[in-house]
Design goal:
With about 170 residues, this protein is of the alpha+beta class. It is built from 1 helix and 9 strands; from the N terminus they run E-E-E-E-E-E-E-E-E-H. A hairpin with a 2-residue loop joins strand 8 and strand 9. The N and C termini lie far apart (about 120 Å). Keywords: Glycoprotein, Immunoglobulin domain, Membrane, Signal, Transmembrane, Transmembrane helix.
Length: about 170
């Protein structure tokens, strides 16, 4: 009996974790690269879901040299030695997909994530607004219903009274 053992890289590959988990406009956001198998030789970050040269934001080579392409809106970015991308003073223009492509001695890997920045005004979510509207409508209904009930009750009392004699 012959047993064939084949070693393959993890099917799960690298991951990207967004920090903070619910980033807001004007915050520093880090797209943290996790589960890299081996030492990074090259790390490239792209704007969008592809890896075209026109989408390249920043690149880090084995020797530590960084190439910042300064795409529109990406002048305040940095790349850490662990492959993580930092965006300082994040703005609405930074919403969207980001793709990281890494190369290790074990081969290439890439992952894409979606960055959605929250408005710092702390505005209410659409669900919260809908809840408030429904509560106000219910309260108005209760007030109108209560007023109708009281008026009917009082009208019934006045009809059953005997007229006062003077």
């Amino acid at each position: 009996m012959t047993v064939l053992l084949v070693l393959t890289p993890s099917v799960f590959g690298i991951k990207i974790e967004i920090y903070p988990p619910s980033p807001r406009i004007n915050q520093t956001v880090i797209l943290n690269v996790l589960d890299v198998d081996g030492a990074l030789l090259v790390t490239d970050w792209y704007r969008g879901q592809g890896t075209g040269a026109d989408q390249l934001i920043i690149s880090l080579q084995t020797n530590g040299s960084k190439i910042n392409k300064n795409l529109a809106g990406f002048t305040d970015v940095d790349l850490f030695s662990n492959g993580s991308l930092q965006i300082r003073n994040a703005q609405r223009i930074h919403n969207g997909h980001y793709t990281v492509s890494v190369l290790t001695a074990k081969g290439p890997s890439q992952e894409t994530t979606l960055l959605t920045l929250q408005d710092p005004s702390g505005g209410l979510s659409p669900g919260a607004i809908a809840g408030i509207v429904l509560a106000v409508i219910a309260a108005i209904g209760i007030v109108i219903g209560g007023a109708f009930y009281v008026s009917k009750k009082n009208k019934g009392k006045t009809e059953n009274r005997e007229p006062a004699l003077h």
